[in-house]
Amino acid sequence: MTMYCEFKIIMIKNKKIAFTLIELVITILLIGILAGIGMVNYFGRREKAINNEAAAILQLICAAEKDIFESTKIYRSCATTEACNTELGLSIPYSVNRNWNFRVENANADNFFAVAQRSSSGQDVLWLNKDCQIHDMSVEGRGGPPDPWGEAPGGP
To answer: Could you tell me the pTM of the whole model?
Structure first.
């Protein structure tokens, strides 16, 4: 009996503990699935943050336009982000300017359209008018702000 116990102890000491190939594949597969889900969530939230950043700047442009309108009774146009900084007395930071191009179109005594267009693709467009309500063209399925006077793009 003692010999059997000694033999069993020797067998346990010599047995190598290892993972099988199936266990390793399943573990790597699960880690890959979890990483994929995490990356999708990360990039989705990143895009939403970038869009919210542009919407905040458009609200800032709207407030600046309203302040200028109070003193001059006319809204101002600007073709680029740098021109908007100058014309409206803003300082849109480079971190936002890197992702978006801002401009104010069709400004006159009655209305204006502030537009934010994605720098990289040029396709994502956010816009607002003097009512300061943000519109997202990627959601609404249109290519830009509507023509407020019912005319062709570019106006009269």
So the answer is: 0.68
